[in-house]
Structures are given as structure tokens and as C-alpha cells.
Write a structure and sequence with these properties.
- This protein has four helices and no strands.
- The two termini are 23 Å apart.
- α1 crosses α2, α2 packs across α3 and α2 packs across α4.
- With 88 residues, the chain is mainly alpha-helical.
- This is Transposase.
Length: 88
């Protein structure tokens, strides 16, 4: 599972870079990390974002995990980018 999470994060980051999508410099968590958390939630936790958030908040994955509320707002904002990623 560890290697797959890293691969998902790299894939999301590469796709966002190819789309020339840049986030705000004040963001604590990148759009790729938000997308990675959502994809991991679907793949490993039956769509439970809270379990994925808690699992990925460890230092080796995402050290600056957002709060539940902030994560949901960011997830809603990156939804169009995720749909493009998954439809390709």
C-alpha cells in the first residue's frame, strides 16, 4: 500500500504540472495531496475520507494534513481536476 500511495501522489502531481495548475503559495497542502487523499479513501477505505485523512496524516505521507472542514472545502475545489484525471 505504501508504494501505491506514493505512486498515486506522483501521478496526481505530474498531471497537475502538465495542466500548468498552480495552487496558492499560502496553501499548507497541495492540490495533488488533496487528490491523493481522496483517491486513497476510495481505493482503501471504502470512500471514508476521514479514515484516509487520519491514515495519511503521518509524517511519511502528508505532514500538514488539513482539518476535516478545510479538507472538504479543498476537495470540492479540486473536483473538476479529479474528474479530468479519472476520465482520461
Amino acid at each position: 500500500m505504501n508504494d501505491e500511495i506514493v505512486a498515486i501522489d506522483c501521478l496526481c502531481d505530474d498531471i497537475l504540472r502538465a495542466m500548468n495548475q498552480q495552487g496558492n503559495i499560502q496553501q499548507q497542502m497541495s492540490d495533488a495531496e488533496v487528490m491523493t487523499t481522496a483517491i486513497v479513501a476510495v481505493l482503501y477505505f471504502g470512500g471514508n475520507f476521514e479514515k484516509a485523512r487520519k491514515e495519511l496524516s503521518e509524517p511519511q505521507y502528508i505532514s500538514k494534513m488539513l482539518s476535516r472542514s478545510r479538507f472538504n472545502r479543498r476537495l470540492y475545489r479540486v473536483k473538476p481536476m479529479q474528474l479530468m484525471l479519472l476520465s482520461a
